[in-house]
Design a protein that fits this description.
Layout: E1 2-4, H1 17-22, H2 27-31, E2 40-41, E3 52-55, E4 61-65, H3 68-95, H4 99-102, H5 107-116, H6 118-126, H7 131-150, H8 157-162, H9 173-185, H10 188-202, H11 204-210, H12 234-247, E5 257-261, E6 272-276, E7 288-294, E8 297-303, E9 312-315, E10 318-324, E11 330-338, E12 341-347, E13 350-353, E14 355-361, E15 370-376, E16 382-384, E17 401-407, H13 416-425, H14 429-436, E18 444-450, E19 455-460, E20 464-466, E21 475-476, E22 484-487, E23 495-497, E24 503-506, E25 515-516, E26 519-520, H15 529-540, H16 546-553, H17 559-569, H18 576-586, H19 597-613, H20 618-622, H21 635-641, H22 643-651, H23 668-677
Helix pairs in contact: 3-7, 3-9, 5-12, 6-9, 10-11, 13-14, 17-18, 17-22, 18-19, 19-23
Length: 678
């Protein structure tokens, strides 16, 4: 295999400092560690022909091969060259084996992931892989392992600090990280718990009134036999929160953007597509750009180390981008267990025996492992109470009920990689949609363009058909009334080809009414402001090019900020300090620039306003879930999604008129004054 380095910067600073010293590694020695080899020739086992890797001035690899297997072997090699520690970290997180190398700080992460069972499911999925996908994944693994063998005496610094050698990679290792991605992007179970806790605090009727929703949303349906308490599921939320140090925060109100315009709206006469996915900030970044050319692949774009194929990008004929669909593919079922036997749970008029899987978590620095017994009903694993060792019986009444997680990602289905590989080779709309029939989880919005001038949109992912209920609250697991009855057929998921206005926008907002054809689409979508702003900017320019798209991506105008300025401008104030703040704010142009005083006021004012409006839930929202920023979630997302409803109510009535929707006989003027005073 030949490396062609092109123009690559040779001077790269590495800061090791105290970390290296603490690990007993001198900073000088650490600085002398070789960087990945990017020139010359190396020998890789199993290659059928020569492969060439050229790195451009940005360090992006361009891989040229004759055969598909060789192409993916080289991809695995360069991923491991540049991101071996990241890959190892992701592998261990996904298998729940992080405490083995970092100690007790990772026990909660391992306990959470072992409870969900990603590793158990991935092992089952290996046998379900189709031949071509297994072949290309195996080639990728050969490249990873070849790199590990070649650098075994000069591994990335993290391996030396932690004192271990990476084990050879296997097929199962490539199947666990997509499930971690699904975990970070499919979080309806947290909102279900929050909604249930709100019902317990204020009652079903008030909870329906307070619930953030799109105007066309139906009412919240509270199951007749369900009983909620304010602390329902807090153990699961606590564990997920503690695990988030490694698994990543899941319920952040940030979002991704994607849009596409037809050739009738561009200066070139051809479609133009843009995508900016927003995931958690990490060093290194999750994404890894690459160009693959060989066999029947000719594709470039963003890959994810420890996975095969280009997730976002283009080939010679089509381009595609993605945003998180935020559709609901999770349900919590309340199970009733036999107090005399914690393995038996009620199902209609009989008792069933749950599967029990013992998980042993090795912990660095501890002689004894942590042992948990995971109970699994036909709905899924019990996530609350938090898994521990089972005892023969319990006198604790709370132990007689438990929450099981039903989630599409917990069904063995290794087709995601196949979908990506087919997507990379799709040549038209028909083949594009055929590829997405294999996309299972997490559900994603796809925007599309091709060289024939077509643009389109598809929702892809497995979404359940519920016997009844809307998926917004935990439901009884014993009566059979809320079971899943299969999945929504792909052909019934929303899609669109060549809309009349020549534009398509996707920004984590609702992409279809609650009913699409015969299939209900449920979800917890983000506010529509970004989508509205993108659409407005697209409409302002008749003919677009790369520069106009760049202006859209760099736009920092806040639509809710401008709406809040209008309301504050109506407000009469008495104190001089509040008046000064008001005067600064109402002159703000809505631009969220780093040096904007008005933008800083808006950010704080919005935060205070939302919490004052929902003061009747203050104790619930202030309840700590975990350390760090996760402690404000998922309540933070709930409040942010309430903003459009709050601004609309505020604009509809005099500010000093009492609004019965607000608790305590308050007016919107009083709420605004309270927010400004804080």
């Amino acid at each position: 295999m030949t490396f062609n380095p092109s123009r690559i910067g040779r001077a790269i600073g590495i800061t090791v400092g105290a970390v290296a010293a603490l690990a007993g590694v001198g900073a000088v020695a650490a600085l002398r560690r070789p960087l990945p080899r990017t020139s010359g020739r190396v020998s890789l086992p199993g290659l059928r022909a020569a492969v060439e890797i050229r790195r451009d001035r940005w360090g992006i690899p361009h891989i040229y091969a004759e055969h598909n297997e060789d192409l993916f072997c080289a991809l695995g090699y360069v991923h491991a060259q540049d991101r071996l520690w990241q890959m190892e970290l992701h592998r261990r997180i996904g298998h729940g084996r992080l405490a083995e190398i970092v100690g007790s700080i990772a026990i909660d992460s391992d306990r959470f992931i072992r409870t969900l069972g990603f590793s158990r499911i991935a092992h089952r999925e290996v046998a379900l892989l189709d031949d071509e996908t297994a072949t290309l994944m195996s080639a990728y693994i050969r490249g990873v392992n070849a790199c590990i063998e070649q650098v075994s005496h000069r591994l990335p610094l993290e391996f030396t600090i932690l004192g271990f050698q990476p084990q050879p990679w296997e097929l199962v290792d490539l199947l666990v990280w997509p499930k971690m991605m699904a975990l970070n992007l499919s979080t309806n179970w947290m909102q279900e718990l929050l909604q249930a806790q709100i019902v317990a605090v204020v009652g079903a009727k008030r909870a329906v009134t307070l619930r953030p929703r799109y105007p066309e949303d139906g009412p919240l349906t509270v199951p007749a036999e369900a009983h909620y308490t304010p602390d329902l599921g807090t153990g699961a939320l606590q564990l997920a929160g503690d695990a988030s140090l490694f698994t990543g925060e899941t319920e952040t109100p940030q979002g991704s953007n994607a849009w596409v315009v037809s050739g009738t709206r561009t200066t070139s006469g051809r479609p133009l597509l843009a995508n900016d996915p927003h995931l958690n900030v990490a060093i290194p970044n999750l994404w890894y750009h690459v160009h693959l050319e060989g066999g029947d692949f000719h594709v470039t774009g963003a890959t994810i180390p420890a996975t095969c194929g280009v997730v976002i990008g283009h080939n010679q004929r089509i381009a595609w981008g993605i945003t998180n669909a935020r559709t609901d593919n999770q349900d919590l079922f309340i199970e009733q267990f036999d107090p005399a036997d914690p393995r038996r749970y009620r199902w209609r008029d009989e008792w069933r025996t749950a599967d029990v899987v013992r998980e042993t978590i090795k912990v660095k620095g501890q002689t004894e492992p942590v042992v948990i017994d995971v109970r699994i009903t036909h709905h899924g694993p019990i996530i609350d109470p938090v898994a521990g060792e089972l005892h023969s019986q319990s006198t604790d009444e709370s132990a007689q009920t438990a929450l099981a997680l039903r989630w599409t990602a917990l069904d063995p289905s290794p087709t995601l990689t196949r979908a990506v590989l087919k997507l990379n080779r799709a040549r038209n709309w028909t083949e594009f949609r055929a590829a997405l029939t294999d996309w299972d989880t997490p559900p994603q919005n796809f925007v599309y363009a091709d060289i024939e001038g077509h643009i389109g949109y598809c929702l892809a992912g497995r979404l359940p058909l519920r016997r009844q209920g809307d998926g917004m609250l935990p439901v009884p697991g014993w009566n059979g009334e809320y079971e899943w009855e299969g999945m929504i057929p792909f052909d019934e998921l929303p899609s669109q080809l060549d809309p009349a206005n020549g534009t398509i926008v996707s920004a984590n907002h609702r992409i279809a009414p609650s009913t699409s054809r015969n299939a209900p689409i449920q979800g917890f979508w983000l506010n529509p402001y970004r989508a509205q702003r993108i659409q407005a900017l697209l409409d302002e320019t008749k003919q677009h090019d790369v520069r106009s798209f760049a202006r859209i991506q760099n736009d920092v105008l806040s639509l809710p900020g401008k709406a809040l300025v209008e309301q504050v401008a109506r407000l009469q104030l008495e104190t001089s300090i509040e008046q000064r703040v008001r005067d600064l704010f109402v002159t703000w142009d809505g631009q969220l620039r780093a040096d904007s005083i008005g933008g800083a006021i808006y950010d704080e004012l919005r935060y205070r306003l939302l919490r004052i409006v929902y003061q009747e839930l203050a104790d619930l929202f202030k309840r700590p879930v975990a350390l760090g920023s996760f402690s404000v979630l998922p309540a933070n997302l709930y409040l942010e999604c309430a903003l459009p409803m709050i601004l609309a109510r505020m604009a509809e009535r005099p500010l000093d008129q009492v609004d019965d929707w607000l608790s305590g006989g308050r007016s919107w003027g009083g709420v605004l004054r309270a927010a400004l005073s804080q």
